[in-house]
Specification:
By secondary structure, the chain is of the alpha/beta class. Helices cover about 35% and strands about 20% of the residues. It folds into two domains: about 60 residues, no CATH class; about 220 residues, Chloramphenicol acetyltransferase-like domain (Chloramphenicol Acetyltransferase). The strands form four sheets. Strands 3, 6, 9, 10, 11, 12 and 13 form a seven-stranded mixed sheet that branches. Strands 1-2 form a two-stranded parallel sheet.
Length: about 290
Amino acid sequence: MSDVIASPTTRRMALEKGVDLDARARELGRRTMGPEDLGASASVNAPAGDTSYWDVDHAAYGAVTAEPMSRFAQVAARNLGAANALIPQVTHHDRAEISAIEMLRKSWREDARARGIKLTALAFHVMALAHCLREFPRFNASLSADGTTLVLKDYVHIGIAVDTPHGLMVPVIRNADCKGLWDISREITDLAGRAQNRKVVPDEMGGASMTISNLGGIGGTAFTPIVNPPELAILGITRSETVTVWEGDTPRPVPMVPLDLSYDHRVLNGADAARFLSRYGTLLASPRQLIM
């Protein structure tokens, strides 16, 4: 029996093309073979969306359990796959000081409790992002399907990615640039809670100018969020960390939040992203100008 590992689809293609898998594997110095290893004709003639790479009998290698993907998860997977394949995206990484935000959250804790609100750092991020989208209108835009027209939006809606047991949901805070800190905090809590219980309706999940994907409560130092079309960018946030900043010869511990901005390179470039996140970081470092 052949020692070459290949899916049934690959073996069928090899048989149809008259390719000796064992000989081809020895030629390539490989043991695992796929359609791309059968020669140029195999890759050229393979249909778009070919699933042969995944057409593997995993049970042949050990015990497995099959778990059906929910319809919601299947739709999300198709959308993410299409977005990652079609958008030439780049991720710009930076970080911002949050000393002032943490001080405000601490000083306003009792006020927030009296209002029945949990004041999280995410509310400040929403306000800063809304401000930046007004200041940098090309980030608050969408590219037409044929790539010939840029649609600039005169509204600012912020999507909040929520991790739920049934998949990722992105409810939207409408007109975030017109709302105060307390209103945004209350809306974040409401939308996230209803998303967990699948009580967010479709009308509350479309039309975002840009989305925030916040992993700060879980961990990580950086990641590459996938742009969610028709948006042109997405902001990722990971866990805050204490960074040593030198002021002359004096070290100072500063709480910083890592920021990851993925953007559609067809419309936005690296300089745009650097300016955007630089301004964003300035607003986070001085949050009172957002509130005022």
